[in-house]
Structure formats: structure tokens, C-alpha cells
Amino acid sequence: MPSARSIPLSLAAPVVFFWASGYPTGALGVAAASPFLLTTVRLTLAAGVLAVIALVGRATWPSGAAAGHSAVAGLLTHAMQFGGCYGGMAAGVPASVTALVISMNPVLTAALAALLLRERLSRWRVLGLVLGVLAVLVTLGGQVASEGEWNPAILLTLLGLLGFSAGGLYQQRYCGGIDIRSGGAVQTVAAALVIGVIAAFEHGHVTHWAQAGITVLWLVITGSVLGVSCYLRAVAVGGAARASALFSAVPPFTAVIAWPLLGETPSAAVVVGIALATTACVLGTRTETRTPAPV
């Protein structure tokens, strides 16, 4: 098996930028339209784009149990993640805090993999997990101190993180042999249907059509198509550990983008949380080197 190479800056930079820009853009979107309505439209358009790509590329479509596994992966990865993140931001969770929580995905994934898949957790990954939890607690504590009260909407953001991590593990366990183009289309269709049902009871509406339209197009093109494609390419070039470690750079870039775009000035707690999260992700995704046993 060929060894993984380092991810070049020309590939790492687009991955970080596309993911980081999604949070402030999503905040603009939920300011112009109801969160579940916005998520439904985004997922529906993304499903159409992915379906066209799969048809043009003559990808093999999953059927039977494979289609069911793809649907479950989509409900976790897309419905829970985006529904939780956008619902939280619509209820007042800042984009920078959302990005920080979601950046814990590699660390939480490592913990769930150890619990559910019996994968080994080294001392460095355990330390990364502890620092990751501390990063979230420091950030949320700072938010409570600045706002004077606990915002229960952060639970939606945490639900989004859980869906993101669980979806990745489910994908690894049950969807390994499914074409990512057709499988991705099935995933987003399933997620769009479920979020669409929730949106029907939301009594959602659009307050600013131009802003909502621009943000949805940006989220579909950069998030669902370009961002995912660049990330999968990064996995192919550098391996999953190195690629997921790129998430450690997402929160600071999100804070930088959100400052002029949303007027969200990073607090001291957010800055400390970003530093802890970066360290946690590096430790939680580091490649272990093992000394070969003597023959």
C-alpha cells in the first residue's frame, strides 16, 4: 500500500476556505429565511447537482440494503448536521462558535470509533479528546458570561456535531463500496425529504429573497460540490488523518470571515477555544508510529 503524502497548500487552502465560509454564509442564510426551509432548499439543489454528476459519469446506483445504508448515512451527515447547525444559528449561536463545535468532529469520531468499532485510542488521542471537550466548555462558558444566560440552542449545534461524527463512522462501516457520486445523491435526497417534513411544520418564510438565494447558491456550489470534492481529494492524497486535521484551521478562518461579514468580534473565550481546539484536532488525528516487534 503506498504511503500517504503531505497535502499541498494548493489543495489544503480551498478545503479550509470552503468549509470556513459555509458557517458565516449559513448565518446570513438563516437571517433571510427559516432554517429548515433553507436547509431543505440547499439539500434539494445539492441532490439534483450530484444526481446529474452521477448520471453523466454513469455511476452505479446503490439498491436494496446499499440504498438503505446510504439513506441512513445521509440522515446523520446531512439532516442532523445542517439541521442542527442552521437551527442553532437561527436561534442565536454565533457562526464562529458553530465552527468551533463542528471542528471537534475528528476528536469525537476517534472517541466513537474506539467505543463502537473497537479502534485503539492512544494516549495522544485521549489527550486530544480531553482538550477538545475543554475547548467547547471554555467557549460556551465565555458565551454565557457575555450574554448573561445559557442559550439552549447550542444543543442543536451539538446535535449537528454528533450527526457529523456518527455519519462518518456509518459511512465507513456500511457504505465503503458505494460510488460516492450516486451514494451522495441518495444521501442528500433522503436528508432533504426528512428536513422537508420538519420545514412543513416550521411555518417558515423568506424575509429577503436575494440574500437567501445568493447564500443557498454559495452553500450548494462551494459546500456540497467543490468543498466535498476537494476534501475527498485531500483524503486520497494525504490520508484521512491528515485531511481531517485540516478542520483545525476552520474555526480561526471562520472567525476572520465572520468579523467583517457578520460583525462578530471574536471574544477572548473564542480565541482560547480555537487554540485548544486546534491542539485537540492535531493530537486527535495524528498518525501513530509503531515500533515493529522484534523477529
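Second entry:
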Amino acid sequence: MTWSQVDRDELLIRSGKDPFVRFATSHELVAVAGPHGWACASPWRPGSRHWGGAAVVGPDAPADAETAALRAIALAAPDLALEWFSTEDGRDLALPPAYLGTGSGRWSFMWCERTAAAVDPAGLAAQGLELVELADDADADLLDAFGRTHGEDPYMGFPGHGFASLWLAARDEVGQIVAVGALHELGSGMPHLAGLVVRPELRGQGIGALLTEALTARAVQEAGVSTLSVFTSNAGAVRLYERLGYATAHRFLTRELAPAGPPG
């Protein structure tokens, strides 16, 4: 399969304005397209660090189509250090010599463009809750401790790293934080839901849904879209996001990458 290098404008056309291309890539990208699909690599975060990529091909594509696409990207940008590369789940990928695989995971890229209204403060008050904004820098230790205590360790919200344009926290009647979540800025400039954690003993009460709805509303009002990534196996979270207006663009199998380095 022959892959030809294209710019982002051509990639949008060749991909049919794919949501991943529209919302997760900027003009700072390396992209290729061919008769069976497209592939690209771009900064996941603003600036030149944290590059990732994806290849999407049709069902009639050769089995090695994504492998050839990644090789074409590596040839076009030999100094590029990709941190991850995704294919549609179920597709094979052989890494070029420049990269080593360090892990993999299955996750879904989702987006929402609906017109969202802000969460009604009266509805929050009826549950004894209020939403407050926290600062990515000044409140980093608080956010990190909450995330590691009640969610993941390491906490994937990355407070204090400058990734977040907005942090929201839900507080109860005595001022105790019961949930947090953020909007990160992608390399495209679009907002991306991240770092959502609810205290375990309070899950299932709709607090996470309220916080997600509030963050989504802010993203859609300010940027026209909200995006997120969720582990595909987290069926409950996927159902929640779909109920709030999100649609799944891709169910990806993502390979984490590291430079192979010079020969020993």
C-alpha cells in the first residue's frame, strides 16, 4: 500500500473530517494518506512535546497497512519521538526499528458538540453541593492528593503541569471536596476532559455526572466542542458520556512507544 505525505487541510478532506483529526490535531503534524485510509502524528499537548499518532484504515485494507503508514511517518520525520501510536482495535501493527513498544491499552476517543447549558446551581444545592474553581498551580498539591487518595496513583489529571485550563471541584455542605475534574488543552487548542475522580463512597449518586456535565458545558460554550478519552472496557463511563451527548469516534488499540536508541 502506498502512502503519500499530506498537510492537515488535505488530511481533513481525505479523512472525511474525522473527529480525531478535527479536534486532536493542529497544523503542526506529520500525516500520510492512501487509498485505504490515513495516518498522522501530532503534539497531544501544546508545543512540541508529547507527540502521539493514529492510523485509521478501511476494512478492505491490507493487514500491514498501519505498519506501512507508521513507517512512512517515521521516514518523513526521522527525528520525531512518538510517545504512542494507535490503530483501530483488532488491527495489527509492527513497529519500525526506531521504536520499542513499552505497553498498550484500549481506549475510546469521544467528542460532544451539543449546545450545553450550565449546571443549575439550585439542583446542586438540593444535593448539598456547590461547584468551585481551583487553580492548577496554587491548588496542585490538594488536587494531586485527592486524585491519588480516591482515584489513580499516579493521578492522571496532572495538576501543576500547566495542562489544565480549568479545574472544577464539587464541595459538600461542610466544604469538603467530594469530586474533582479538569479540562486539559490539546495541542489543537481544543478542550479535553481529564482527571475526573469522585470519592469512592459517594459514587453512583450522580456527582460524577454533574461534574462531567458542568465541564462539558464550559468546553462547548467556549470552544464549540468537548473531547475525552476513556478506557473502552469502562462500559459504565461510556454509557454516562453517551447520555450526556458524547459520541465515539474511534475505539483505539494504543501502543506506548520509546525510542529504540543507537545499536548496542
